């Protein structure tokens, strides 16, 4: 199994990738396969994370000062070296781009299993709602996407498993949630923890992939239910995509998110509903 990071990032960050589990073929990948272009308003909270002008992961804007992304996109990443772009359907231009003041990785994150795969980034400058930007709605504590329900994932990752170039435009794809029991039969009983859920087609063909890591997966109501995490290649038959299950990770999120970008003294509630709406360098 492998995190859904962008290919060039895995080459640039050997210390990170060496610590992560790999699939039987050693593939490290994550992107949108079998999808279509997203439209304005579909994912008004999605952000592109970049370093040295190159996109490497997705993320989600929770409020004016806070981005949620995958822990595996954040380990050993210096806040001063990365940028966040919001309000654009293209990762390289448009919208608003700001710096990052701090990165907090979930202390429960396990690099060997990619469990508890979530991190909070505090922004150096605020990003207000408007001009195609709004904040994501978090799920209820303990919620777990129901098997066979439809979820939609978005990102700027590769369009095929062995691709080389990221798409300029934001892509999305809808897939059914796969039961945890079924997903454990695909990957192994211990590989799929309770802080993960799975989604995909048994026959493959639709999935997230390299460059999508940390990006959003939402349910039919537009609620943010997970983040792109890892998988066996991309869109392979018999292997679902694996996502961080946010309903099981709210304690960490609430402890590290506040409306003004500071750490709250008491947990914050999920934001009020807004409009419904795998790590790679290039």
TrEMBL record:
Region feature Disordered, mapped onto this chain: 259-282
Keyword Methyltransferase: no
InterPro entries: Peptidase_S1_PA (IPR009003), Peptidase_S1_PA_chymotrypsin (IPR043504), Peptidase_S1A (IPR001314), Trypsin_dom (IPR001254), TRYPSIN_HIS (IPR018114), TRYPSIN_SER (IPR033116)
GO BP annotation list: proteolysis
Endpoints of the signal sequence: 1-19
Domain Peptidase S1 residues, every copy: 32-258
Alphabetical list of Pfam families matching this protein: Trypsin
GO MF terms held by the record: serine-type endopeptidase activity
Organism superkingdom: Eukaryota
Keywords tagged on the record: Disulfide bond, Hydrolase, Protease, Serine protease, Signal
Regions crossing the membrane: none
PANTHER family named among the record's database cross-references: ACROSIN-RELATED, HYALIN
Protein name according to UniProt: Peptidase S1 domain-containing protein
High-level lineage: Eukaryota, Fungi, Dikarya, Ascomycota, Pezizomycotina
């Amino acid at each position: 199994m492998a995190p859904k990071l962008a290919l060039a990032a895995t080459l640039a960050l050997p210390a990170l990738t060496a610590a992560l589990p790999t699939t039987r073929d050693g593939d490290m990948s994550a992107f949108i396969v079998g999808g279509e272009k997203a439209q304005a308003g579909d994912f008004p909270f999605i952000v592109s994370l970049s370093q040295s002008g190159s996109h490497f992961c997705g993320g989600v804007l929770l409020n004016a000062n806070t981005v949620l992304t995958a822990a595996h996109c954040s380990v050993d990443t210096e806040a001063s070296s990365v940028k966040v772009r919001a309000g654009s359907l293209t990762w390289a231009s448009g919208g608003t781009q700001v710096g990052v003041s701090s990165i907090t990785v979930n202390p429960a994150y396990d690099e060997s299993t990619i469990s508890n795969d979530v991190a909070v980034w505090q922004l150096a400058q605020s990003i207000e709602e408007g001009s195609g930007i709004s904040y994501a709605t978090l799920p209820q504590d303990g919620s777990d996407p129901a098997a066979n329900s439809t979820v939609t994932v978005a990102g700027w990752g590769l369009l095929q498993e062995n691709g080389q170039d990221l798409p300029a435009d934001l892509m999305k794809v809808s897939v059914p949630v796969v039961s945890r029991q079924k997903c454990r039969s695909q990957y192994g009983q211990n590989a799929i923890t309770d802080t993960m859920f799975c989604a995909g087609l048994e026959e493959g063909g639709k999935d997230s992939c390299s460059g999508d890591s940390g990006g959003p997966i939402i349910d039919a109501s537009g609620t943010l239910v997970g983040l792109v995490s890892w998988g066996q290649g991309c869109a392979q038959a018999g292997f679902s995509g694996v996502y961080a299950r946010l309903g099981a990770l709210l304690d960490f999120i609430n402890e590290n998110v506040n409306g003004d970008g500071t750490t709250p003294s008491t947990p914050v509630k999920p934001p009020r509903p807004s409009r419904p709406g795998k790590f790679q360098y290039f």
